[in-house]
């Protein structure tokens, strides 16, 4: 029996999702405002924290979730995209929403929207808000899908927001410069509410929007700081100080920035933590697909790096953690990721590329991928599928070698599902 023949029938939720246009990006809030009003969700009672930025959003939401748990607060976390199944997008206190909960929410959306056309992402967002209200969570954590100003999550007013970083990505929708992209991401700010900027290099558009709205801007290294040590780190914001915190299990120094930004956002809202609670939150902080160890000997790491900034972090991590053997990559990418501008940075840390074309309609086609790689990397091989590329990579690897699977959430889904 072939894998295709053995595949289980699609679930009711999968059938419903397949009816939606998963790959259409349709920015704008008018449709959502109408549906939210009809669902009586325009002014939810829950506290809302919105997280935007180019990279680190999911990790920051996960850190917020872990920190809120130490406070005895219930939360609902809406994130995207998912890796293995849609339910990952809607998380209530550490459990994923069930198919039945999501389908019930979709039925409510269908009844309320009437003739209004909604995108896949808008359905997901509305379903999350419905489920969070039904579950009576204390706090809603909303990860921006694309940009900020016109993103579905911005249809609700946040009590605080985090902008993790700003870098070049999604230029077709957000603009072709840092300033233009920053203007879009700054759109999640609200008047007189705190906004945390989680990086040291802040575009002027962030500061300008904060001044315009009289929002309390709290910036890394200007208003809050962290200091890295060999096995620990320390954090400081005004009177709040946490010394010699054990590092998280998540790999990469940049994750300390994400955790610090999450902690700053909650402190700015009046939450109080003792050192034991902060350490408890760090110990419980986890998220899939961020330099995640899949196996040892050979070491297999899975990472969702897919743009210039995240790839720069990945390169630095691979340099800082050398191995005796070779490093191989299982890789593919979406067509809009400006691959030509950053792929060459990786060649010094990757010995052999095993590539394939994603089944996603937004995927870079195999010929374009092959052409760009030929111009920038030393050795690459192409395969007909993610499964075959991964199998061949493992077959070629010795116990002392390393395999890094990356390029997008979609790459991890196709390789490991």
Quick rundown:
This protein is α/β, with parallel strands linked by helices and 417 residues long. The protein has 15 helices and 17 strands.
Care to describe what's here?
It is a single chain. With 417 residues, the protein is α/β, with parallel strands linked by helices. It folds into two domains: 10-284, UDP-N-acetylmuramoyl-L-alanine:D-glutamate ligase (3-Layer(aba) Sandwich), CATH 3.40.1190.10; 292-416, Protein-Tyrosine Phosphatase, Chain A, CATH 3.90.190.20. 37% of the residues lie in helices and 18% in strands. An eight-stranded mixed β-sheet has the order 4-3-2-5-1-6-7-8, with helices on both faces. It has a six-stranded mixed β-sheet with strand order 12-13-17-14-15-16, with helices on both faces. Helix 4 (57-70) packs across helix 10, helix 4 (57-70) packs across helix 11 and helix 5 crosses helix 6 (120-135). Residues 1-6 have low confidence and may be disordered.
């Amino acid at each position: 029996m072939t894998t295709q023949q053995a595949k289980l029938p699609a679930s009711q939720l999968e059938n419903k999702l397949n009816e939606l246009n998963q790959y259409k990006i349709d920015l704008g809030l008018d449709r959502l405002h109408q549906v939210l009003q009809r669902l009586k969700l325009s002014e939810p009672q829950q506290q809302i924290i919105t997280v935007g930025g180019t990279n680190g959003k999911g990790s920051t939401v996960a850190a917020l979730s872990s920190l809120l748990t130490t406070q005895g607060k219930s939360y609902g976390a809406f994130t995207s995209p998912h890796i293995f199944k849609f339910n990952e997008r809607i998380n209530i206190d550490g459990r994923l929403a069930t198919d039945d909960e999501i389908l019930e929410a979709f039925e409510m959306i269908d009844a309320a929207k009437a003739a209004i056309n909604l995108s896949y992402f808008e359905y997901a967002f509305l379903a999350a808000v419905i489920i969070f209200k039904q579950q009576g969570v204390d706090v809603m954590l909303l990860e921006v899908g694309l940009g900020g100003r016109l993103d579905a999550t911005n249809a609700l007013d946040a009590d605080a927001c985090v902008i993790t970083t700003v870098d070049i990505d999604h230029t077709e929708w957000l603009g072709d410069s840092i300033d233009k992209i920053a203007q879009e991401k700054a759109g999640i700010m609200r008047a007189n509410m705190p906004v945390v900027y989680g990086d040291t290099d802040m575009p002027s558009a962030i500061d300008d929007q904060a001044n315009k709205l009289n929002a309390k801007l709290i910036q890394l290294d200007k208003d809050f700081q962290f200091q890295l040590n060999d096995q620990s780190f320390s954090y400081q914001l005004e009177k709040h100080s946490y010394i010699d915190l054990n590092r998280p299990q998540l790999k990469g120094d940049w994750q300390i920035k994400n955790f610090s930004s999450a902690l700053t956002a909650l402190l700015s809202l009046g939450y109080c933590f003792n050192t034991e609670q902060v350490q408890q939150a760090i110990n419980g902080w986890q998220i899939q697909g961020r330099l995640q160890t899949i196996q040892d000997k050979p070491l297999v790491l899975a990472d969702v790096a897919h743009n210039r900034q995240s790839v720069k972090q990945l390169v630095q991590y691979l340099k800082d953690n050398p191995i005796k053997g070779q490093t191989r990559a299982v890789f593919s990418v979406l067509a809009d990721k400006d691959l030509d501008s950053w792929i060459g940075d990786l060649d010094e840390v990757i010995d052999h590329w095993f590539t394939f074309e994603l089944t996603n309609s937004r995927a870079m086609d195999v010929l374009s991928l092959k052409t760009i790689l030929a111009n920038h990397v030393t050795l690459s091989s192409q395969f007909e599928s993610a499964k075959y590329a991964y199998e061949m990579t493992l077959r070629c690897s010795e116990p002392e070698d390393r395999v890094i699977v990356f390029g997008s959430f979609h790459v991890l889904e196709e390789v490991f599902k």
